[in-house]
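Dear support,

I submitted the protein below through the web form. The confirmation email said the job was done, but the results page showed an empty box. After a refresh the structure appeared. I'm attaching both so you can tell me whether what I see now is the final result or a partial one.
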Amino acid sequence: MSTTVFTDNIHMTDVSITEVSKTPEPPKKSQVLVILPCLFAAMGGFVFGYDTGTIAGFINMEPFLESFGEQDETGAFFLSRMRAGLIVGLFSIGASIGTLLGGYLADKIGRKKGIVYVAMIYIVGMLVQITAFTAWYQVAIGRVIGGVGIGALSVLVPMFQSETAPQNLRGALVSSFQLFITLGIFVGYGVCYATKSRTDTGAYRIPMGLCFAWAFILLIGMCFMPESPRFLVAAGRIEEARLAMSKTNQVPLHDPALDEELKAIENSVIREQSAGKATWKELITGQPRMGYRLTMGILTMVLQQLCGANYFFYYGTSIFKAIGMSDSFATSMIFGGINFLSTFGGLYIVDRFGRRKCLLGGAMVMFVCFLIYSTIGFAALYPNGDTTLPASKIVGDAMILLTCIFIVAFATTWAPIAFVVVSETFPLRMRSKGMAVATGGNWMFNFLVSFLTPFITSAIGFKYGYVFTACLGCAILFVFFFIPETKGLSLEDVDELYVSGVSALKSSSWVPSSKQQDANEPKDCMADFSESS
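What the results page shows now:
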């Protein structure tokens, strides 16, 4: 079985496709300006990541506890499990709603304008939070509003990137959304570390206030970026699409390569629009294989959440304090740095090794890490299971190491590649609705993890990790049997892949019709190789 998994992306496919493709190659300089809009849109990921990194620190800051917590019989301030779960988790409820808004705006006003408008919504949410003084529910309401903005961004940004990026760089550029999320988490940890010693409300208001700066950078910058050419074609604005592609690729308006790519997009749009206006019902029952594709998208995003990464990112400071770390804020910042740096690896491997290999390998490593982490956590961290005694330093260090390995595996595979897979799964006509539902599933499970974690960990401690271990086992089986390989394919080719009904196990050797000219012999060779494997 393992042999099949790791040979299904054999590079003979890549070589033959390159040789037979007759599409004119754009000049090298064309990559520069076409990459810029994708990277700038990824700033939406930074806003999301920064919010995630700061909330993990807020719930452990004394000034925050004094402002929004309760007092026990000794006079110490604390956040009840319910209050902490709501402050952290309601953000995800807002984001679930935001995914539907993002899908609507994507079709109604476009990907670019949609990003600008939802950045404004996030700013309103932050304004509600930062003006709260003692009302914890005001913070929670602000997080719901901010979550709506972030949820919409999580749909709009990968959609904009996948439709704007050149196909040979699409995996890396869509993955940059996750790179900026990890950068935001790291910066959020760092800012909280810098302000944690303050005894006034500036400890949390300063990090909160910086959220405005990041959102304004995204809002203003996107005003100067081009719109997605695929959206413009779908809206009947062909010449605007041509102009946008000409500017970003730095080629003449009627360059042969540009003409051919634009024609392919037009043909795809005409084919899809001939079926009429996309409906929500069609997302489930429509063709080609929409129900199957929707299921793939939802499960990919849900399983990304059930990998258990947010168990560490949302409650990392609290977890490491329980392990016995002297400065859990510093430890969280180190993990944030590892998370950020590891994501650079994801930008490389997603288009080097393909989606399937990366997702399979990452899930296997995380499975082993969580299994060992949970076992030694409940069986050996505290002598005789007495949590009132000091934690074992050796076991605590081992758990920290396992967490580092887990974060590297997650950051290089499931964190960025889940967004890549989902952004490629749906045809243009159904993309906004499909991505909205799939990403909404991710946010709903994000809420469940963030809200339930304080209750579950207080009841079963580190045994909670076995839940994520089981989910990772399911993820391995899901990817192996159901996720097709889409490396090196245009979005129109991916649509054809689903229409053809090729199984996930044979998808790596599949060649789209647009690249089969004069390729019969290489194709047969690859088929023979695949069968012999």
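Response: this is the final, complete result; the empty box was a page-load delay. Residues 428-460 form the longest helix (33 residues).
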